[in-house]
Each structure stands twice: as C-alpha cells, then as structure tokens.
Design goal:
Blueprint lengths: L35 H13 L14 H9 L6 E2 L7 H6 L1 E6 L5 E7 L6 H10 L10 E7 L2 E7 L3 E2 H11 L5 H20 L13 E3 L5 E3 L9 H7 L13 H4 L6 H17 L11 H9 L13 H10 L10 H18 L9
Antiparallel strand pairs: 1-2, 2-3, 3-5, 4-5, 6-7, 7-8
Helix pairs in contact: 6-9, 6-12, 9-11
Length: 354
C-alpha cells in the first residue's frame, strides 16, 4: 500500500504527471514573461509559504489581490513525479507533490466531477472545517476545470516506515512514545466523533504519519475514503506481514460504529508495541485469521518488557463484543494519566523521539 517517499529535488518535465488528465502528457510550462500582477502574486506566495495561504484573508492588502492570490492556484504550481506514484495513489487520486511556489512537499487530493456523488459531497462538507493538531492540515483548496484540488500537508515520516525500521533492527519502541502516539491518536478520533465524523479505514497503520517534531498526524478522511471493495482488498491474501483489521461486527454484517473504532485503536496499539499486526495472515491461511477475529480470540501477547497496563488496554480494545470495549474518551484519559506518570519517572533522563 501507500508508503511515504521523498519527492525528488530534480523536477524534470518528462517525469511530470498530469493529475487532471493522467493519460496525457503534461504540457510544458509557459516560460514567457508574466504580468506584473502575476509576478507580485508569485513573490508574495513565495514569501509567505503555502502553509499560511489559508490565512491570506488577514493580510493588509486590497480585497481584489486577496482573491487573486487565493483563487489563482493551478496544478502548474505543483510538480507530481510519476516515478513516485503507486497503485494506491492512482486509485484514490492522491498524489505526493512539490509546491513550486515555496518548494514544500504536499499531498494533492483530486476530486473530478465524475466521482462526486452524495457520499463524497457529504464527506467534503463534513471535513471542510476539521482542524486538530493531530489531523493532517488542509492547506488550501481550488477548482480547476471542474475538478476540486485539495492541498494537504505531507508529514515526512510514516508509521509503517518506523515499524519496518524497528523490525529490521529488532528493537521495540520505548513505551512512553507508544503511549504518546496512542494518546494523540485517541485525541484525534475523539475530536472527530464530537463533530459527528466516524473515522473508518481498512488499513489504519497506513493512515498515520508523524511531523518533524514527532507529533502524530492522522490522514484526512477525504484522502483515502473507504469503500466495500477496500474492505475486501484488506482481507486479500498477501505476504507474512499482512494483517487484517476488519472488526468482528463488520465481518458479521453489522454497521461500523464508534466501538469499531476502538477495535482499530487496539490493533494499532498492538502493532506499534509488537511490530507485527494483531491479526496477521500466516502464509496464505487468511481464513484462520478471520476465524480468530470472529471468535473473539486475543492476539499473540506482546513482549514481557511492556507494562501490564499496555497489555490490558490492548486486550480490552480487542474484545469480540463491541459493548465490552472501553470508550475512546476513556482510552484518551487513560493514556494521558499514564504518560504523566511515566514523564515524572523520566525526569532527568532524555526521552528519545520517533
């Protein structure tokens, strides 16, 4: 599935991908001198940076210039390298890109008119005002040729890459950092629930990354909207590292709900601690893994070096009966209390970041 890849510094035109017309060749950029207004726009945007573009209305400049700056972004202002794309990017119309105005790395979510149905429209409306320190920021949105282009920040470190690195080194993550990440994830999910948004994904570890300061960032729900086909793909057979994250209630035809989110939280917590999925597919025996989930069997125990609280939290989150799982709010409060206690124990010692 999707992996974070550093965008190449060399933006060669032959490698450029046309996000509005994937089957066509990207037209060469016009190198003719632009108007004075265009030069002013470029200078201002370069000076302020893309991350501050959303607050452009606060600039002490004429309203006409504000509108020009905010509404005149185009795909020409972004470089998408076709060599950095995978099937996940293509199928979801999500593209890692470099903004040519300030050379920042971003993600472009393209929503063409043919894909806008009631479900997508509702999601766009629900997510338009989402703002949380542990949810990927939407930097700006513009329309070009009827296609909505939503520009998101691109946190540089993916959780899947951290887990892969730790597996290679045969080293578990410090428990404090595990609780920190879990606390931030619970905070993001709790915030979304309070806004009436039920965050659902077939591949939860793929949807988490970290910024330069080690802060957790959950992907926007618009980036990789799940579908019934996604759930089927998530249960497809793969290599020994493949995990199944589908909840027991969903497997039996019930609706995904907040208690189902707790199951996903338990799967993530187990995987961060054990460096392996809670319900891993061994070889090609997918059905044995599905049976373990549907019959409510606990995953393999994590290392004895972890605390009893961490082990019990995983077991509670992965109970087969959704009504027996803790609430997201309870998990967030528990993680906060444990972090505070561990932080006091770490006084005078350095805490290594992710």
């Amino acid at each position: 599935m999707a992996r974070r890849t550093r965008i190449q510094d060399q933006c060669t035109e032959d490698a450029r991908y046309n996000v509005l017309s994937p089957d066509s060749v990207f037209a060469a950029l016009d190198n003719q001198p632009g108007s004075l207004q265009q030069h002013c726009r470029t200078f201002i945007l370069q000076a302020m940076g893309l991350k501050r573009l959303a607050r452009i209305v606060d600039l002490p400049i004429p309203k006409t210039m504000v509108n020009f700056l905010a509404n005149q972004l185009t795909v020409d202002d972004f470089f998408v390298n076709r060599n950095n794309l995978n099937s996940d990017h293509i199928s979801h119309c999500v593209y890692p890109a470099k903004c040519l105005l300030d050379m920042s790395e971003v993600l472009l979510k393209c929503i063409p008119p043919c894909l806008v149905d009631d479900r997508v429209s509702s999601a766009m409306e629900a997510w338009k005002d989402v703002s949380h320190p542990n949810i990927m920021d939407k930097l700006v949105q513009f329309n070009q040729g009827g296609t909505e282009i939503v520009v998101y920040e691109y946190p540089p470190v993916a959780l899947v890459d951290i887990l892969a690195r730790q597996r290679r080194q045969s080293r578990f993550l410090p428990e404090y950092l595990i609780w920190k990440a879990f606390n931030e994830l619970c905070s993001a999910i709790k915030y979304l629930n309070e806004k009436g948004i039920i965050y659902e994904t077939a591949n939860p570890t793929e949807r988490i990354s970290f910024d330069e300061n080690g802060g957790l960032k959950l992907d926007s729900g618009l980036l990789y909207m799940p579908s019934p086909q996604d759930a089927m793909n998530a249960m497809a057979m793969g290599d020994s590292s493949t995990g199944i994250y589908t909840t027991p209630e969903v497997l039996t035809g019930q609706q995904f709900r907040t208690a189902s989110q707790v199951w996903l939280l338990g799967c993530i917590l187990h995987e961060i601690a054990a460096l392996e999925p809670a319900y891993q597919v061994e070889g090609t025996d997918m059905f044995a893994t599905l049976a373990n989930i549907m019959e409510g069997r606990a995953p393999p125990p994590i290392d004895d070096g972890f605390s009893r609280e961490l082990k019990s939290t995983i077991i509670e989150c992965l109970k087969g009966d959704p009504d027996q799982r803790p609430k997201v709010e309870e998990l967030a409060n528990r993680a906060t209390a444990i972090m505070e206690r561990m932080k006091r124990g770490y006084e005078g010692r350095q805490i290594v970041d992710l």
